[in-house]
Automatic annotation (TrEMBL):
<keyword id="KW-0813">Transport</keyword>
<dbReference type="InterPro" id="IPR027417">
    <property type="entry name" value="P-loop_NTPase"/>
</dbReference>
<dbReference type="InterPro" id="IPR003593">
    <property type="entry name" value="AAA+_ATPase"/>
</dbReference>
<keyword id="KW-0067">ATP-binding</keyword>
<dbReference type="InterPro" id="IPR003439">
    <property type="entry name" value="ABC_transporter-like_ATP-bd"/>
</dbReference>
<dbReference type="InterPro" id="IPR017871">
    <property type="entry name" value="ABC_transporter-like_CS"/>
</dbReference>
<dbReference type="GO" id="GO:0055085">
    <property type="term" value="P:transmembrane transport"/>
</dbReference>
<keyword id="KW-0547">Nucleotide-binding</keyword>
<comment type="similarity">
    <text>Belongs to the ABC transporter superfamily.</text>
</comment>
<dbReference type="GO" id="GO:0015833">
    <property type="term" value="P:peptide transport"/>
</dbReference>
<dbReference type="GO" id="GO:0016887">
    <property type="term" value="F:ATP hydrolysis activity"/>
</dbReference>
<protein>
    <submittedName>
        <fullName>Oligopeptide/dipeptide ABC transporter, ATPase subunit</fullName>
    </submittedName>
</protein>
<feature type="domain" description="ABC transporter">
    <location>
        <begin position="31"/>
        <end position="271"/>
    </location>
</feature>
<dbReference type="GO" id="GO:0005524">
    <property type="term" value="F:ATP binding"/>
</dbReference>
<dbReference type="Pfam" id="PF08352">
    <property type="entry name" value="oligo_HPY"/>
</dbReference>
<dbReference type="InterPro" id="IPR050319">
    <property type="entry name" value="ABC_transp_ATP-bind"/>
</dbReference>
<dbReference type="Pfam" id="PF00005">
    <property type="entry name" value="ABC_tran"/>
</dbReference>
Length: 380
């Protein structure tokens, strides 16, 4: 199976990378027929992602719902089998591992999920939830040592040891997420993939959990891949940020660099949606209203995936040639043919009629980008 269109990205400098994701693809088959035995197309959920994360670093992955963030996280751990590309963890290509070797490597990579209530078994006490993880990795070393380890884990996430006998429903959302984090820490991982770790929590509790993740990172030298749709959360926690759109990374930079000078039109649109507290700045700042939904990953637009919604779109290169992710400023990579011209102002934004995109090529009567969708650019 091949991608809709291959594209060569410039590799991120690996340096002391703990994990390198190289051209990873996850294409889900779309099955039809009475016995679901006919493959009539593919959902290109992740379509050629390259990124690497250094030891001790926090990498934030952001993008709209459905752009492939969770699938990418699962593919890294091989919870979903990638259909292309490879993941190199601490120098080992994970695709070469099987059985015991894969299990041992997986122990070093743990996941924290969005909704602690559904990721914790309601019939299990906290003690058995935590012991289960230890046992699965052969780290259950007698009653006394295990009891000590469990108390240490709870203390690390700010819960009293009396929590051990309780059940998930007896805790608040924030406390449950602390249990989810303790479960991940139980096996002493190096990398934690946190998929929307605070988005199910009250705003007042979000900061506490983010602070806990930061404290644990400092104490234990952890490396994080934090997946979130909320740019504010990622800005707070991440050293570097990757912005995803329809299965690919369109921009990657240090957190400060990205927020100070977003270069990709999609990132500019995302950031322009966040209000600025200063009324003078708020009045003058660029606001880009993205109209139309995310096109279907079963039938992604040709060329640049974002061209159907892009106010800087240039015919016909954007419609036909998929831009590679390339370094435009030091450490700042952008997948846009015109990044330099947009940055200098040589190319001005314009109002565009969004191009109609047919759903997965199977039901052409369902437009995915609403008719008469127009991208407005206010105060350009
Ligand atoms: N098992 C699957 N089979 C088919 N399609 C899938 C499967 N899992 C995910 N998808 C599709 O892949 C695309 C990416 O989904 P994914 O959940 O990775 O996106 P996301 O950016 O994490 O969104 P959200 O924040 O809503 O979870 C979506 O169109 C989704 O419907």
């Amino acid at each position: 199976m091949t991608a809709a269109e291959p594209v060569q990205a410039e590799r991120a400098p690996e340096g002391d990378a703990l994990i390198s994701i190289e051209g990873i693809q996850v294409h889900f088959p779309i099955k039809r027929g009475v016995f679901l035995d006919r493959t009539v197309g593919h959902v290109y959920a992740v379509d050629g992602v390259d990124l690497s994360i250094r030891k001790g670093e926090t990498y934030g992955l952001v993008g709209e719902s459905g752009c492939g963030k969770s699938t990418l996280g699962r593919a890294v751990l091989r919870l979903t089998e990638p259909t292309g590309g490879r993941v190199v963890f601490d120098g080992t290509d994970l695709s070469t591992l099987k059985g015991e070797a894969l299990r041992t490597m997986r122990q070093r990579m743990q996941m924290v999920f969005q909704d602690p209530m559904s990721s914790l078994d309601p019939r299990q006490s906290v003690e058995s939830i935590l012991v289960e993880g230890l046992r699965a990795h052969g780290l259950d070393k007698g009653k006394e040592a295990t009891g000590k380890r469990l108390r240490e884990l709870l203390a690390a996430v700010g819960l009293p040891s009396t929590s051990l006998r309780k059940y998930p429903h007896e805790f608040s959302g924030g406390q449950r997420q602390r249990i989810g984090i303790a479960r991940a820490l139980a096996v002493e991982p190096d990398l934690i993939i946190a998929d929307e770790p605070v988005s199910a929590l009250d705003v007042s509790v979000q900061a506490q959990v983010v602070n806990l993740l930061e404290e644990l990172q400092e104490k234990l030298g952890l490396t994080y891949l934090v997946i979130a749709h909320d740019l504010a959360v990622v800005r707070h926690i991440a050293d570097r940020v990757g912005v995803m759109y329809l299965g690919g990374i369109v921009e990657e930079a240090s957190s400060d660099g990205l927020y100070a000078e977003p270069l990709h039109p999609y990132t500019r649109a995302l950031l322009s949606a966040i209000p600025v507290p200063d009324p003078v700045v708020e009045d003058r700042r660029e606001r880009i209203l993205l109209k139309g939904d995310l096109p279907s990953p079963a039938n992604p637009p040709t060329g640049c995936r974002f061209h159907t919604r892009c106010p800087w779109r240039q015919a016909t290169r954007c419609d036909t040639e998929r831009p590679a992710l390339r370094e435009v400023l030091p450490g700042h990579r952008v997948a846009c043919h015109w990044a330099e011209d947009i940055r200098s102002g040589a190319i001005k934004p314009h109002e565009v009629e969004a191009v109609l995109v047919e759903e997965d090529g199977i039901s052409p009567d369902v437009p995915l980008v609403g008719p008469a969708s127009v991208t407005e650019v206010l105060n350009p």
